[in-house]
């Protein structure tokens, strides 16, 4: 089983990413006249939030935690979670600056125009988030693969051993049956074997 420090570290990073995603998404959703680039970002954050919650669920379940904590998953997951948190912090700073720290309400024509003019900056953040979303999806896929492999391998080995034994028995019976058939057909073979 994984080290308790690994579990708490990964769980902490995941939990922080979940909370930050939800907070930034709420911050965007509270702007009633948010430009399209922001509403799209909010939808992206909700998708990533779903992936993060899946990973958190895997981590909280003993049967699936080993997939998330496996070295091939955990190392990359920690890296992408840190990059994701940094991207969210940049996005949050841009939102704070644009809304002057107010939460919710209308932006007004001037601020809305300014945000629209900053669309390239928000698009850059969105592209970073898209890359991180892909990496998080890969972490889920690798975790699933590891979990199914860990669970299936011992069972598959048992089945393979049983099948080998069964096949060996069937082959021995066939060989024995074939020998009896050949002895019945060819009496000269029986007389040679008895001599």
What can you tell me about this protein's structure?
With 195 residues, the chain is an all-alpha fold. The protein has two domains: 4-153; 158-194. It contains seven helices and no strands. The protein has helices at residues 4-29, 36-60, 62-69, 71-99, 109-117, 119-185, 187-194. The mean pLDDT is 80.
Brief sketch in words of this structure:
About 90% of the residues lie in helices and about 0% in strands.
**How many extended strands?**
0
Residue runs with pLDDT of under 50 for 5 or more positions = none
Number of domains: 2
Average pLDDT confidence is: 80
Helix-strand sequence? HHHHHHH
User: Tell me, what's the shape?
Assistant: rod-shaped
Distinct helical segment count: 7
Strand proportion: under 5%
Sheet with the most strands, sense and barrel status: none
User: What's the Cα radius of gyration?
Assistant: 31 Å
Instruction: State the distance separating the first and last CA atoms.
Output: 65 Å
Structural class: mainly alpha
Helix content: over 70%
Protein name: Fungal N-terminal domain-containing protein
Organism: Colletotrichum siamense
How does the SSE layout of this entry go?
Layout: H1 4-29, H2 36-60, H3 62-69, H4 71-99, H5 109-117, H6 119-185, H7 187-194
Helix pairs in contact: 1-2, 1-4, 2-3, 2-6, 3-6, 4-6, 6-7
């Amino acid at each position: 089983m994984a080290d308790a420090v690994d579990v708490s570290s990964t769980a902490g990073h995941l939990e922080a990413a979940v909370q930050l995603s939800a907070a930034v998404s709420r911050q965007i959703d509270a702007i009633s006249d948010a430009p399209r680039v922001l509403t799209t970002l909010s939808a992206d954050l909700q998708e990533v939030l779903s992936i993060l919650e899946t990973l958190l669920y895997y981590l909280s379940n003993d049967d699936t935690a080993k997939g998330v904590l496996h070295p091939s998953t955990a190392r990359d997951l920690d890296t992408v979670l840190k990059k994701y948190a940094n991207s969210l912090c940049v996005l949050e700073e841009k939102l704070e600056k644009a809304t002057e720290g107010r939460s919710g309400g209308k932006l007004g024509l001037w601020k809305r125009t300014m945000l629209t003019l900053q669309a390239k900056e928000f698009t850059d953040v969105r592209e970073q988030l898209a890359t991180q979303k892909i990496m998080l999806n890969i972490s889920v896929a690798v975790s699933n693969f590891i979990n199914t492999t860990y669970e299936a391998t011992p069972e598959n080995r048992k089945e393979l051993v049983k099948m080998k034994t069964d096949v060996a028995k069937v082959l021995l019976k066939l060989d024995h049956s074939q020998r009896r058939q050949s002895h019945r057909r060819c009496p000269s073979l029986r007389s040679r074997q008895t001599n």
